Amino acid sequence: MAYRLGLTGSIGMGKSTTAKIFAAEGCAVWDADAAVHRLYGVGGLAVGPMEAAFPKAVLHGAVSRDVLKEIISTDASALAEIEKIVHPLVAADRAQFAETATSDILVFDIPLLFEKGSEDMMDAVVVVSVDETTQRARVLERGTMTEAQFEAIKAKQMPDVEKRARADYVVMTDTLAGAEAQVKAIVKEIRAGLTDA
Question: Of 5, 8, 25, 46, which is most buried with the most CB atoms under 10 A?
């Protein structure tokens, strides 16, 4: 039975980079956002049910996230309906990964891990963190959202201080070398525990 490690952190904290470091250490990584992209893409399992519920949301055989955002902004009940379609499909994708992955440590990269109560399914949780100034700068440097959008997303996420308090491990991502050293130490500790078990 592989060790299940949850990986989470607020927007701009360096979660994707940290996931890559875990992968480089031989861990199998499942990415919740990537799973949604697969489900929304051409031939994805969410396309049919989404088209039935929101016909305008499907363009050229794929679900448009931009159209979904517009629908959610005008219809308060839409988000719950979308989640009802997508969450079971994401859960099935995650279960399939857990069954087929061959690594001793499975890393589950889930942005809203604590918010959705998914930490109970994990053996331990890693929270990635950085100071607020760096976080804001990273997000705005991407050029994909305004400061107002960043603040809106942040408002929906559990505060970083609370996530860190609930974590088994915290990886500070202010420097790449520092993050790599911390991930290596976590993997080493977990693997030592697995060999003792």
Answer: 8
Question: Residues forming the annotated binding site?
Answer: 12-17
Q: Are residues 167 and 128 in the same domain?
A: yes
Name residue 148's amino acid: A
Annotated binding site for ATP: 12-17
97 and 109 belong to one structural domain: no
Instruction: Give the whole-angstrom CA distance, residue 64 versus residue 9.
Output: 25
Backbone φ and ψ for 141, nearest 5 degrees, come out as -65, -30
Asked if residue 35 belongs to a domain, the reply is: no
Identify the sign of the CA torsion 183, 19, 72, 142.
positive
Predicted TM-score of the model (pTM):
0.90
Burial of 142 (0-12, 13-18, 19+ CB in 10 A): exposed
Q: Are 54 and 89 within one domain?
A: yes
- pLDDT exceeds cutoff 90 at 76: no
- Tens-place pLDDT, residues 119-171: 999 999 999 999 999 999 999 999 888 899 898 888 888 999 999 999 999 99
Tokens at 65, concatenated: 């996230």
Distances (CA, A) of 77 to 72, 81, 84, 112: 8, 7, 11, 20
